[in-house]
Amino acid sequence: MDRAQKAALGSAGIGLIVLVLKLGAWWVTGSLALYSDALESIINVVAAGAAFIALRVASKPADGGHPYGHHKAEYFSAVLEGVLIVFAAMMILKEAYAGILAPKPLDTPALGLAVNAVASVINGVWAWQLLKRGREWRSPALIADGNHVMTDVWTSCGILVGVALVAVTGWLVLDPILAAIVALNILWSGWVMIRESVSSLMDASAPPDVLDRIAKTIASHSEGAQEAHDVRTRQVGSVTFIDFHLVVNGTMSVTESHAICDRIEAALRQEIEGARVTIHVEPEEKAKHKGVPVLLAS
């Protein structure tokens, strides 16, 4: 089990603890807003489990049926999390509508707020860890899980303020209204997560900053070549696939052109973690006079 899988499994465990605390907060208060918060935590646990399974699949080595590996499994997990978030939001909206029609008083709000606050602190610390590790390890599943948990944290903060206002002012209708507002925010977060994950499943290119680093690396390690063009990338989980055409002198030997390719590949792998490089060597008549400028042989 690798570090990303352990993090996903840990996320499920933390999610269970937070879920129990939030269910307790809802049970002692009867607050619809706290109920919506607990409902989202159920989704967190399910999503963390899905992330763990996706990471297990993504870690499998390439095989005959999947020569490029199984890295895209992480994006399926992220899409599932987005769908679950949208589903949770719709359920909360349904309960909020009923609550607005018939608002209910809160029981022991102070105790419920205290319990929910403890759960929110735990969630906040864990979300920060997930996002930090997910970016460091370039794991879409962990980043999606971290964003999901962080959404839960902001949701909880808004709910804590809202329920406190209900307790102080006695305006019972604030409770379901707050739940509805939170649901709309959750709905938007789910949509963004689905949109970004689907884009990655469609082989979106690497981010602009990564493309810039790739171009500079090719340019500074291509001495002996004449031109590099048609540079293409696609990012799949922790792997960045890079391919391009390298133009060399038509009289250059295979051994010499191969040495240039080896030098560029080694530099790209050092600069871009998880890089998989494919270079197509072409003679000078194939030059397009555009693309990445390279160092010319002296």
Features:
Alpha-Beta Plaits, 298 residues, Alpha-lytic protease prodomain-like, transmembrane, transport, 8 helices, mainly alpha
Helix content: 55-70%
CATH class of the largest domain: Mainly Alpha
Which class of secondary structure composition applies to the elements? mainly alpha
Tell me about the largest β-sheet: 3 strands, mixed
In CATH, the topology of the largest domain is named: Alpha-lytic protease prodomain-like
Q: List SSEs in N-to-C order.
A: HHHHHHHEEHE
Name the shape in a single word: elongated
- Strand arrangement in the largest pleated sheet: 1-2-3
Q: C-alpha Rg, in Å?
A: 25 Å
Strand content: 5-15%
**Average of per-residue pLDDT values:** 83
Q: How many strand segments?
A: 3
Count the domains: 2
CATH architecture tag of the largest domain: Up-down Bundle
Spans of at least 5 consecutive residues with low confidence: none
End-to-end separation: 50 Å
What does this structure look like?
The two termini are 50 Å apart. Strands 1-2-3 form a 3-stranded mixed sheet, covered by helices on one side. Helix 2 runs antiparallel to helix 3 and helix 2 runs antiparallel to helix 5. It is built from 8 helices and 3 strands, in the order H-H-H-H-H-H-H-E-E-H-E. A hairpin with a 2-residue loop joins strand 1 and strand 2. The longest helix has 30 residues. The protein has 298 residues and is mainly α. The chain folds into 2 domains: 199 residues, Up-down Bundle (Alpha-lytic protease prodomain-like); 79 residues, Alpha-Beta Plaits (2-Layer Sandwich), CATH 3.30.70. The radius of gyration is 25 Å and the shape is elongated.
